[in-house]
Write a structure and sequence with these properties.
alpha+beta, single chain
């Protein structure tokens, strides 16, 4: 199975499958070739998109301007560009995050 992200000249592009109107904001693991993320925000007036970018920047300890929605503005399937000059560090953070999610789900 392919990673839900790939490195570009600008940083990392992350594929996301969004679950709006959830009970908690959280990473749920992999969904095909995307990361499944649950958000409490509704998919109305860009609220879920804003909540997604906020969750990513907070979780990854990045400035708000580091994350940009590239595609999927009105879709559950999105692509987010995470701008970074140190993709190796960010890839390590993502791997650790998904390892923690997997352990919570009983996968390790």
């Amino acid at each position: 199975m392919a990673n839900p992200w790939h490195v570009t000249a600008d940083g990392i592009v992350l594929r996301v499958h969004l679950q709006p109107r959830a009970s908690h904001n959280r990473f749920l693991g992999l969904h095909g070739e995307a990361v499944k993320i649950a958000l409490t925000a509704p998919p109305v007036d860009g609220a879920a998109n804003a909540a997604l970018l906020e969750l990513l920047t907070t979780t990854l300890h990045l400035p708000r301007t580091a994350c940009v929605l590239q595609a999927g503005e009105k879709s559950r399937n999105k692509r987010v560009l995470i701008r970074t000059s140190t993709p190796e560090r960010l890839l390590q953070q993502l791997a650790e995050l998904f390892l923690r999610v997997d352990k919570k789900r009983g996968g390790g």
